[in-house]
Design a protein that fits this description.
Radius of gyration of chain B: 30 Å
Largest interface: A-B, 53 and 42 residues
Strand order of the largest sheet of chain A: 3-2-1-4-5-6
Number of domains of chain A: 1
CATH class of chain A: Alpha Beta
Structural class of chain B: mainly alpha
Strand order of the largest sheet of chain B: 1-2
Strand content of chain A: 5-15%
Oligomer: heterodimer
Number of strands of chain B: 2
CATH architecture of chain A: 3-Layer(aba) Sandwich
Chain lengths: 274, 253
Amino acid sequence: MTFAERMLKIDRRIIFLMIGLCTLLPLLYPVGLPIKVSSEVRGVYDHIESLPERSVFLLSIDFDPASKPELYPQAVALLRHAFRKHLRVVTMTLWVSGTGMADQLVTQVAKEMGKEYGTDYAFLGWSPGGQAVIINMGQDLYSAFPSDYNGKSTKDLPVLDGVRSLKDVGYMVSLGAGRPGVEEWYVFGKDKYKFELGGGCTGVMAPGLYPLLRSGQINGLIGGLRGAAEYENLIGQKGKAVAGMDAQSATHLAIIALVIMCNLFYFSLRQQRG
Amino acid sequence: MTALPFESIIGAWVATGLTLLIFSFLYKDNPLFKLAEHLYVGVSVGYVIVKTYDTVIVHLVVKPIVENGEIALLIPVAIGMLMLTRYVPKAAWMSRYAFAFIVGMGAGLAIPRTVSSFILKQVEDTIRPLLSMAGSDGVTFSMNLLNPDSHLNAIIILLGVSSVLFYFFFSIEHSGVGKAVARTGILFLMISFGAGFGYTVMARMSLLIGRLTDLIEFSDASYGRPTVWLSLLTVGALFLLARRGREQPPDIH
C-alpha cells in the first residue's frame, strides 16, 4: 500500500482529533488575531447608532439552543448596544423552542446594563402562527401579543407607549436560524408595513441572505460567529465571539490543508494507476 | 469570590455530561450517545408541548373566552377542532374544511408577497445600469470589485444570472456557443456552492467552539470541575463498554 493510499484510508478519528486540537489550543492560548469589520455588519451598527434616544428597537430572537453558539453572542452584542443607546427594547420570538433561552438572555443583559423591565425593555414571549404573527403585529401589536411572557397585559407596559403596530418601530432586527426568520420578517413585515429591517443569521444561512442585502431589502447582516465578533469589536465590548475567532481561523486553516492534501493524494493515486 | 447559585452548578454538570456523551459518538456509536440523543429528543418535544399548551390553549383561547367573554374565538377553535376528526374515519372528511382554510389562507397570503419580495425586487436589482452618465464627465464605469454597486459587479451579476438560467434551459442542445454559456453557468454555480460550503464549515466549527468554550468554563473549581470528572467517567465507561463488547460473542441468527 502506497503512502497516498494509506493517507486516503486514514482513520477518521485522527482527523476529528486534529480538528479538536486546532479548536481547543487557540481557546486555551489565544493569539488575538485582528478582526476586520465588514460593511454588512456595520450597516446594522450604524443604523442603531443613528436612532434617537427612546426609539423603539424590536429584536426577534428566532432561534433555539441548537444555534446558540452562533446567534447568542450576536443577540448579547445587539442588546448591549441598544441599551447603551437608551433605546426602548422590545423582544420576542417566533420559535417556541427558544422561549426560555430568549427570556434568560434578555433578562441577563438588561440586568447587566441596569435596565428596568416594563420601562426600558420587555419580552413579549412567543405567539403561534409564524408569518401570521408578523402580519398581525403589522395591524395591531396588542392583538398578536395581548400579554407579555410573564402574563402581564402589554397595553400596560410603558415601554410600548405610542406603539400600535410595526409601523411605529424605529428599527427591527431578526436573528434567525431558519424559518420563520429574516426572510419572513422581510416578506410579511417590512415589504408591507415599511419599517427598517436588519438581520442576523447562522453561517449556513448567510449566502442565501446576501441577495436581500445587495438589493437593499435589509440594511445590514450579521453572519454567524464571525459577524458577532465584528459587532463585539464595534461596540468595544469583547465577548465569547471574539474569544472564538482564533479557534475559527485555526480550524479553517486545518480544513484548507486537509482539502489540499486529500486532493494531492487522490490525484497522485490516479496517476499511479494510470 | 462569591459562590455560584446551586442551579448554575447543576446546570453546568448536566450540560457538560450531555456534551461529552454526544461527543463520544466521534469515537464510535455507543449506548452513551444513544442515551443523550433520546434525552435531547424527549426534552425538546416535552418542552414544545408544554409551552404550546400554556400559550395557545390557556392564554390565547381559554382565558380570553372565560375572563373577557371573547366568544368570536370559538370560530377558529371550531375550525381547529375539525383537524381532530382525522382520528375518526367516518368523520375524517370534515378535516378537509380545516385544511382547505389553511391552504387557501396560506397561499393567498404567501403568493403575492413572495412574488413581490423574491422575484420583482430581485429582478429589479439584477437589471442595473452597466454605465452611468455623470454630468460633464460623460460616461463613467467603476471597476471596483469590492464595491457591490460597481458597474463591473453589475456586469458579473448579469452574466451569472443569464448563464445559470441558460444552463437550466433544456429545450435546446448545449453545443457550440450554447455549450460555452452553459459552462459559464456551471462555473457560477460552483462558486456559489463553494461559498455555501465555506459558510457551512464556519457554522459547524462555531458550534464546536461554543461547546468547547463551555467545557473550558466548566473546568473551573467554582463549578466543581465537572469537565475533568465527567471526561474521566465518559472515557472509563467507553473503555468498559468496549471490553464488554469484545467479551460477548456476536449474536448470529
